[in-house]
Task: inverse folding
């Protein structure tokens, strides 16, 4: 027998050991669905980041280097935004966390300057008292996003182009979509950390948002924003558009026209956005008691750069 | 009319599984390989169907996936698997012959992947060298030299055994 014949015979004899095709089409179908879904959710994550999950910059607890306003956008946008920039109200709820009714956990104003070169997130404390009684967070429980919006509009004199609302479930989906986030226990401290960094998944985010460790929750959100940004899915506007629609399955609600913000978001990196928040010493039950009028005025006139230069203690970056 | 993905999968899966088994030598690995390939086929079906011969295109995808072990997630699963599955027992009435043939099967596993693929394409799939060259993405001369090197290795090993 020649070696060629031997080979043919060997192959032929082992044919019988070939796996059966039964069930394989279903396995393939499942894998395809899962992969498509993974693609879609990653995009949804980008959309969430683009319109609202930039919030980590605006929450308290990040350290505050002296910040000078800087050019934030890398590229030029082809279409000009409205003359006074874009204002979006971003509301993060505590839906599903087991409290009595649903309140607003996070309320912030996302402002993109008219030149699309600067972006700001202005945090409003949820415990701040509002006109008509109660806290800002409770306005959501009383009348949903519309009520919160009208209260903030009255307070600031801003005409919001859009309102974005998201739930903890949105963050869970985003976190899972990016494969979890790496959370370091002391990210801003230079000393070696014996416990180091850990990877957390979507289930952990709910726990962290709900738990007592407020600083931990803030670090988690920051890590999430970094991770989503690192996936570079923000750079494809067409994809982004499509994915905003998908994100609402996970609790993201968008009312209004977000085109300009979305366009800006495609070129802004999380690390390049300036957050505005009251210093730690500020009373928790008041919303910008001292600087409010000048801050809101700067927002309305699209002149936050100058305002931040005059109020560096209110600027917040990583 | 163009063939649909479902029609293609229905008619071609058994042959692809056999081909994958000849390449990998292990039925689990073969199934992983076919599954991963077919997921990609389905995700890119329009492009696959546009080609003159979807069959050959898919065989090329599968072969590349097998040869290029550094890419593709199935590889990691396979490499982490400690042992190849035991083969189906040989028929008893040709015991001695079977042992020799299983020895050949084991020797195939030691060959470089491209060489094994070339052998499978010629002696199992019965493809002409020009078609083998297309599947492997190389010149016909390369196919021939790679097959003759593989055969030389097998001859040496069989004599030694």
Result:
């Amino acid at each position: 027998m020649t070696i060629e014949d031997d080979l043919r015979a060997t192959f032929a004899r082992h044919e019988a050991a070939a796996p059966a095709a039964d069930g394989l089409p279903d396995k393939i179908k499942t894998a395809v669905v899962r992969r498509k879904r993974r693609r879609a959710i990653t995009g949804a994550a980008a959309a969430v980041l683009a319109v609202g999950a930039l919030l980590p910059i605006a929450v308290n607890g990040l350290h505050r280097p002296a910040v000078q306003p800087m050019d934030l956008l890398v590229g030029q946008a082809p279409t000009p935004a409205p003359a006074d920039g874009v204002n979006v109200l971003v509301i993060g709820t505590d839906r599903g966390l087991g409290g009595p009714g649903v309140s607003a956990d996070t309320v912030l104003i996302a402002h993109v300057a008219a030149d699309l070169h600067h972006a700001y997130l202005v945090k409003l404390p949820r415990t701040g008292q509002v006109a008509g009684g109660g806290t800002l967070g409770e306005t959501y429980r009383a009348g949903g996003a519309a009520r919160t919006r009208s209260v903030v509009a009255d307070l600031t004199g801003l005409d919001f182009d859009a309102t974005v609302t998201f739930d903890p479930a949105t963050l869970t989906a985003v976190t899972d979509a990016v494969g979890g986030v790496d959370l370091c226990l002391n990210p801003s401290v230079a000393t070696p950390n014996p416990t180091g960094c850990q990877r957390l998944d979507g289930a952990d985010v709910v726990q962290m948002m709900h738990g007592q460790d407020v600083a931990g929750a803030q670090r988690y959100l920051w890590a999430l924003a970094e991770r989503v940004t690192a996936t570079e899915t923000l750079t494809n506007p067409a994809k982004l558009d499509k994915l905003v629609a998908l994100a609402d399955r996970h609790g993201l609600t968008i009312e209004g026209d977000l085109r300009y913000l979305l366009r800006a978001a495609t070129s802004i990196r999380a690390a390049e956005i300036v957050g505005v928040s009251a210093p730690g010493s500020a009373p928790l039950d008041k919303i910008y008691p001292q600087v409010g009028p000048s801050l809101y005025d700067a927002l309305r006139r699209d002149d936050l750069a100058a305002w931040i230069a005059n109020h560096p203690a209110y600027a917040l970056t990583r | 009319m163009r063939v649909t993905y479902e029609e293609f999968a229905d008619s071609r899966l058994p042959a692809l599984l056999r081909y994958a088994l000849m390449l990998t030598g292990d039925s689990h690995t073969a199934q992983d390989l076919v599954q991963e390939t077919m997921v990609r086929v389905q995700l890119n079906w329009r492009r696959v169907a546009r080609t003159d011969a979807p069959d050959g295109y898919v065989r090329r995808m599968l072969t590349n996936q097998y040869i290029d072990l550094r890419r593709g997630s199935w590889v990691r699963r396979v490499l982490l698997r400690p042992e190849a599955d035991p083969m189906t027992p040989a028929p008893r009435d040709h015991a001695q012959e079977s042992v020799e043939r299983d020895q050949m099967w084991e020797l195939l596993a030691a060959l470089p992947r491209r060489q094994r693929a070339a052998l499978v394409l010629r002696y199992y799939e019965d493809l002409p060298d020009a078609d083998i060259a297309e599947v492997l993405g190389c010149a016909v001369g390369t196919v021939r030299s790679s097959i003759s090197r593989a055969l030389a290795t097998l001859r040496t090993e069989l004599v030694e055994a």
User: Anything to note?
Assistant: Chain B has two domains: 1-83, 94-161. Residues 109 and 139 of chain B are 24 Å apart (CA to CA). Chain B touches chain A through 36 residues (CB under 8 Å). Residues 70-93 of chain B have pLDDT under 50 and may be disordered.
